[in-house]
Amino acid sequence: MARLLTLKDFSRESHLATARALAAVIIVGLLTLVLVGRLVHLQVLKHQHFTTLSENNRVKIVPIAPTRGLIFDRNGEILAQNLPAYGIEVIPELVEDVDALIMELRKIIEISDADEEEFLAVLARKPRFEKIPLRSRLDDYEVARFAVNRHRFPGVDIAARLARDYPHGELGVHLVGYVGRIDRRELDSIDQADYRGTSHIGKTGIEASHEDWLHGTVGYQRVETNAQGRILRVLERHDPVPGRNLYLTMDAGLQRTAKAALGDERGAIVALEPATGAVLAMVSAPGFNPNLFVHGIGVDTYRSLQRSPARPLFNRAINGQYPPGSTIKPLLGLAGLEHNVGHAHGESWCPGWFRLPGRERRYRDWKKHGHGRIGLHDAIVQSCDVYFYELALGLGIDRMHEYMSSFGFGARTGIRLGGESLGLMPSRAWKRNARSQSWYPGETVITGIGQGYMLATPLQLATATAAIATRGIRMRPRIVDRTMDPASGETEVVEPETTATISPLDFANWERIVEAMADVVHGSEGTARRISADIGYQIAGKTGTAQVVGIGQNEEYDADRLEKRFHDHGLFVAFAPVEEPQIAVAVIVENGGSGSGAAAPLARLVIDAWFDDAPSPPAPGQRTLRAASERDQPGSAGPIAPVPG
Predict the structure, then answer these.
(1) 20 to 30 A from 640, CA-CA: which of 54, 158, 161, 519?
(2) pTM of the model
(3) From the candidates 136, 199, 284, 326, which is the catalytic residue?
């Protein structure tokens, strides 16, 4: 069988190889074009975008917290300062499991539930690349323990920061206030950009109300970091602007005297400079140590303060609302003179009680057998209740409301402290709106001695007393005298501000009232005459006693049979010297008894201290001056207890 021979087709194979090579070249070319196009897109069209991303991988913006401004008294004594303290800070983006981290850290240092809660609250609202404080105020032992374990905790480090400190503890705590960690509510209301790098904010007092001056402006720096987030070098820095230093009108020495004078009593003392409204002292007792709140107070400690019957967290000076008692009698007398009400220019008969025409109920005087025939001057000096029952009825509640409101009762004084209470100056309209009830003549009667619905704060009483001292110029109470830029030393003075001018129809009326107030202290029958012993200047004042519990028609007030918390409040308002007043004072001693016995001696101590004529402050719970007289027992029954001025 013949064998077939097949010859190769070299031409065909050559064409096939060429086609394949051409296809490969085209594919490679297309892929090259795609690659080049992608490179152009990434490096030309998206150059700026990826440059920024690349830069962010190694460059961070780190906020620099400003230094908080310092707080001084009027003489330069420091009240709030900044001290270095060590704390644990966490960079969340470098931590895989925050809960596990905290659990491990607790094996080395103490971290409370409150610390963790605050940390998680801030973590939820701040960028994860920012440092967030977990625990403040580490002691040396805790710092050492963490240092040897530092390698186990990437993203966690010890930072030295300035922490707020109050060197005098509770002295002036309700006025100065304190700072604390920023909480969730505050995070929603503050400018978070301005508080980057800051973990604390003013909570109460001046620290809160003047936060805009004290805080300063945050700075920042651009830093280069490694993969672990550690700073390698600083590329750019913009320094923060420190907060302004505040110099208060308060005198720390006078504040100490007022605090020591109150001792263990609950109450408040406010001292003002009449001509400027400057707050010279403001004490609310009892107080508390503000340093407890700076780094997070323990739950048990806070609850003990919050639940204490003494209410140490409560600022009685601006929030305490008390019946002013007989302290308003000089103002009511001035209103009677201005409106030419009946016996304001004559006399009244005081048998020891007063009764509305056609009514059986008696309103008693503090003096059982009465004061007999008495005019305005002696009614103020001896604090005759019956005289002012009649005067109030002659004025009527509407004119009383209008005149007393001009002295600031029933309105905030305007002091730059948060949460000031309004007090209450009742009127027909107020009762109709608040109680949906009519006003009754008996309510006018008891308002005439500062009882019933009427309420006032110690600051309102001090402001009204200062307005008497200035003969009608009512100043806004102010607590900051000047501010200073710590960098330049530039000082700005806070100017006094007049809020009202009370112009009498007859200027002699002022002098009649002031003369009567002077005789309250220096007259032979004045209710505060005992505090005038060995005095080198003249005080114009008025005592007051505010009833805490009602006394029935057929009952008598007996302090010995009542618990301390049911005793009357003692009040006293005063200014001195009479002719050129330099200080006005309001004192309230809760459940202290009569104003002459409990409050007036404390005012004398404060005024003496201001004039550098002070005896040593009394030991806690003691008094160096005695009352003008013991409380007389009530006579005929009435709807309220008799209250000696």
Answers:
(1) 519
(2) 0.81
(3) 326
